[in-house]
Amino acid sequence: xxxxxxEAIRNELDSHLGERIRVRANEGRKRILVKEGVLEKTYxxxxxxxxxxxxxxxxxxxxxxxxxxxxxxxxxxxxQDVPAGS
Length: 86
Hints:
SH3 type barrels, 21% helix, 5 strands, alpha+beta, disordered C terminus, 5-stranded antiparallel β-sheet
């Protein structure tokens, strides 16, 4: 059951590659991280977001984080070009 849910999440994210997203991550002890960036790539157990800050940092989260509500994502709908070879 959990494997199918993870595959469904990955397939959903695959359909949004290159789009801008807002990520809200619970970092524990009442700390919430809210960042915006571009969904860069998906892997078998994680997805990667290129943050919109000036450094262009890459941050990754696991699909389990989405299942357990430790991370929430919201698609803002603006498509961005993902550089080739990423």
